[in-house]
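Protocol step 4 of 5: obtain the predicted structure for the target chain.
Materials: sequence only (see below). No template structures provided, no constraints applied. The aim of this step is simply to have a reference model before the mutagenesis design in step 5. Sequence pasted as it appears in the construct record:
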Amino acid sequence: MRGDATQPAVRVPRAPVRRARPPVPTSDRDDRLPLPAPSPFDAQRLLDAQRLLDIQRLLDVQRLLDVQHTAGNRAAGQFLRRAAAGSISVTAQRSITAQRGWSDAKAGGATTNTSVKPPASGNWNAQDIVIGKIRRINVEGLDVDDSKSGTSPGVGNVQDDAKEGGEWGGEGRVDKITKEKAIGKALVLVPEPFDKSIKCVDVMIYLHGYGIGYRQRVHTRQQNVGTKDKPKMVDEAGMESGTVRDIEVDHMEEQLDAVNAAATAGGGRPMVAVMPQGRYTAQLGAQFGAAFLSEAFLDKAFGKVPALSGVKRGRAVLAGHSGAGGTLTPLLGKAVDERGQLKSGAEQEAAGLPKNLAEVVLFDALNSPRQRKNVETWLTGRV
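Step 4 output (C-alpha cells):
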C-alpha cells in the first residue's frame, strides 16, 4: 500500500558524479606513472590503486618506460597488472634499465642462422636482447681519445676505422661492411634476471680479433671454394649481411649462460662479460687504443649499466682471439720486472691488467715471437 510505513522506502541510486581532476602543477609532479582515480565507494579498486602506487615506488620507472618504448603499451600494462595481482615479484631483481643501444645502429635486416629471434627493430645493436639467461647490452660513450688530450688512457680511445679495410681481409672498406662506428663502444653481457642478492661478480674481458667485431654487417663476405685458376665464390657461413659475430659465430651469450649455470650449481659467483669494440685491424693503429687499461675500461663499462652499480668485481679472466694478441700480450709482458718477477698489484694494474687476474685465455692469438715471449715471461713470473 502506498504510503504504508511498514514498506521500506525505495531509493534510486544516483550515478556517481565524475569530476575532472584539476591539472597538477608542474612543480608538484613526480616521475611516477599517473594512476586512475578510483570510483566512489569502490574499496577494491582503491586497494588496487594503492598497491599499484606501492609498486611504482619499488620499480625503476625509467625501466618500465623503456619496456613501453620497446614492447608497447600492452606489454607494459600486462606487467603492471601481474605485479598488482601479486603474480610476479617487484623487489627480487635489480633494475636493468633497457639501453637505447648504439646510436648509429640503424641499418635493418637483422638475421641469423641460430635459434635466436631477430629483434623487431631490424638491428641487433639497437636495444637490449635477452638470449637464454643472458642480457646483451650495448653501451657507448666510452670515447675518451687519449691520442689528442693525453687523458684517461685506455678508456675507449679507439680511432675511427671507416676507411680501413683495404690493408687486410680482402673484403673492402669497413664503411661498406658495416654502417656502425667503432669509437667508444662495448657489449656487456649480464645474467638475466640479475638478482638483488648478487653483490659480487666475476668478470671476463674479451677482445675480438681483426674484423668489424660486434657491429652488424650490411655486406656478406664471400670465400673461394674453387681454385686460383677457376675460382668459385660462395657466401661464408656466419658472415652474412644482417648478422653479428658474437651471436652467429662465437655464441658468446650461450657460452656465458653455460658458465653461469655451472657456477650457480656449484655455489659460485655469476660472471659478467665486457667486450670492447675495437677497430678493424691494428695495422694502421692500435686496435683497442694506444694503452688499453682493463680496470679503467671496466669502471667505464660498469658505470653504463645501472644494475651493476655498487656490484663488486671478483676474479677476472682476460681473453682474446687472433689479432687481439697484439693488445693482450704486451700487458702481460709489462707486468713482469727485469728480474722476471711479477710486479706489485698496483703496478700490474697500471700496466693494463685487471685486478684479481685468475685466468688468461688466448684463442689463436700468438702472432709473433715477441708476443710469445711476453706470455712466457708472464707465466714464468707467475710460477
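Step 4 remarks: The two ends are 108 Å apart (CA to CA). The chain has eleven helices and nine strands.
Proceed to step 5.
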